[in-house]
Amino acid sequence: MADDKLKLYEERKKRFLAAMNLEKPDKVPVRLSLSEFVAKHAGYTLQEIYYDLEKNIDSINKLLTDFDLDAITGAPSLWWAGLHDAVGAKYLKFAGRELDPNTQFQYHEEAYMLPEDYDAFIENPTEWILNTFLPRLHEELSEPGSYRANLSLIKGAAGMAMQQGMNKKAWATWAAEYGGVPAFTAMSKAPFDTLADTLRGLTGIMLDLYQRPEKVKAALEVLIPHNIFYGMATSGGEMEFPLFMPLHRGSFPFLNPKQWAEFYWPSLKQVIEAFWSKGKRTLFFAEGNWTPYLESIAELPEKSIVFHVDMTDMAQAKKILGGRFCLSGNVPNMMLAYGKPEEVRDYVKRLIDEYAGDGGFIIDAAAVIQGDAREENIRAIIETAREYGVY
Amino acid sequence: MVNLTDELSIAIAELDGDKVMALVKERLQAGVKPLEIVKKLQDGMTRVGELFETGEFFLSELINCGEIMKGAMAELEPILAGGGQGYRGNIVIGTVKGDIHDLGKNIVVMLLKGTGYNVIDLGVDVAPERFIEAVKENNAPLLALSVLLTSCLDSMKEAVTKVKESGLDVKVLIGGPIIDDNFREYCGADFSSNIASEGVKIAEKVFA
Ligand code: B12
Prior knowledge:
The complex is a heterodimer of chains A (391) and B (208). Chain A has helices at residues 3-20, 36-42, 46-51, 53-66, 81-87, 118-123, 125-137, 147-178, 191-199, 201-211, 213-235, 257-277, 294-297, 314-321, 333-338, 341-355, 375-388; strands spanning 31-32, 71-72, 92-93, 106-107, 243-247, 282-286, 305-309, 326-329, 361-362. Chain A is α/β, with parallel strands linked by helices and 391 residues long. Chain A has one domain (3-81, 181-388): TIM Barrel (Alpha-Beta Barrel), CATH 3.20.20. Chain A starts with a helix and ends with a helix. In chain A, 46% of the residues are buried. Chain B is 54% helix and 11% strand. Chain B has nine helices and five strands; from the N terminus they run H-H-H-H-E-H-E-H-E-H-E-H-E-H. A five-stranded parallel beta sheet of chain B has the order 2-1-3-4-5, with helices on both faces. In chain B, helix 5 links the parallel strand 1 and strand 2. Cobalamin sits between chains B (59, 98-105, 107-108, 144, 146, 148-150, 173, 175-177, 193-196, 198-199) and A (35, 104, 106-107, 109, 197, 248, 251, 287-288, 310, 333, 367-368, 370).
């Protein structure tokens, strides 16, 4: 690691960790949840970053060269489309295959798990996933045991290992050559989201809550240890940085308060507490509006999460969670795409004035930053935070 | 808020699926006109929409209600034969190209159907040309578009522009959580809203 880059890395890391520990760093840290914007900035099409791992990774080199960020969320595409093609994934559509070269990938939601699958799932989730679920979702696996299916399992596993290997190397390069600090180093989900997103789908889960609530609860119980294990496995033993948890179906107005308290919260709380007991903090990426649930979230152990604000009422979040957890986010994505740099500047200043005063605050956009964000607005966030966010 | 007196309307508003199905069958056997039964179901749905708007009902209730309605309509539609009759008009709807979020749009569809419109739902990731075709084919006076991704706002604008350029006599309503008046102007749409039930009120205006 070049000395100056090492110094930069340490400086940023210190700033970022201090905020999460509710301390006052030298400046308010800037962590931007950048996705497709990164590809656009580097001059790559979305098809290129989905299919070419090297371009996906290289786009971050360009980002880190051009922007001064305290923490980054990693390569813009989470997926390697080639890997999904190798197993014939039916639930994702990619640019260049089903879609035009510069369009966002698409997820095709359906109830891939049926009501009658609950018992087998609860009995042995991994067995059910391998024998029943994966063949349903993947063209190449549709006949388990066939040579095609075996081949695609090998290709899939090899592809996954390649992707992970390259990502790991990329993170080492970003740190050493650009002083790039990771915003998180692991990932997991709320048990209810695992069940509701990919398994039962939204309509499925909503009906289950009325028609088979006991099965839902039993399935959530099974998912708790699974999601804890998944989080720890993806952390690779790294404990300083948080674990990313994008939260979907617990936002208002998905579940009524009684359902939220009964089905969404207990299992999620257990997962987060288990991480914290091992020393791993959770980036509680609260997509949408979580205002009605802030009181419950405040029950989590102090500092165990970073609460990310998308459409949650910021003032309420500060009032109920401030001083307990670090807060992040809230710069509107509409403004980043359609607003002027002056508006962004004013917004960031106001955030710093009202919410960053006693430390424990990280600047970020409200939602994931896509290709529509304008470069001058991204610069305005960073510059304002650097100039105005000095403690 | 509507005041429900009919047992069937109350049953659907209380999300009592078994009771709804039983009452529908009972009334059909008793010779009640299918269209009248549909009307009672719609009254109940309207109530559910209102409860959602006032924050008493959540998505879980709304989706459950939608499925109960689907079940009841499966019973009724074959008898309503000939389709078309009794509808208050045709509305084409869809999520714009590039965007696949459809939960909000589905609620709008449910409420519009619940109020008696024939809704032609083109689904998600819909190209402008398909909107134009569907409006033409169904002679629809109203086209409703949904979007969630800020990155698809230009795709929304493109759809509105192309529909307007096509010269079709159709009003365009745009909706989604990030849509506001400024954006309506930017797109050149006739109406905009980020509340599903507003969509119904706008339809009432267009079809008045
Ligand atoms: C569920 C969800 C998904 C599901 C979608 C499932 C489905 N079948 O729709 C899945 C998991 C597939 C998904 C995928 C993605 N998503 Co998403 N998703 C959400 C989430 C959590 C909820 C949206 C929702 O359904 N809300 C509930 C419905 C009922 O509300 P609504 O849509 O606002 O509708 C209401 C009103 O707006 C109105 N309305 C809506 N349409 C219309 C139309 C008319 C005519 C009218 C009158 C009214 C109206 O009526 C409804 C009821 O009042 C939001 C975050 C959030 N909580 O809002 C993110 C969110 C919208 N997603 C987001 C993103 C980024 C994505 C992805 C790109 C993910 C990625 N990078 O990995 C992909 C997109 C792929 C694509 N090409 O579209 C971002 C968008 C950020 C941005 N810059 O715009 C959000 C905001 C999350 C975030 N904070 O980052 N997502």
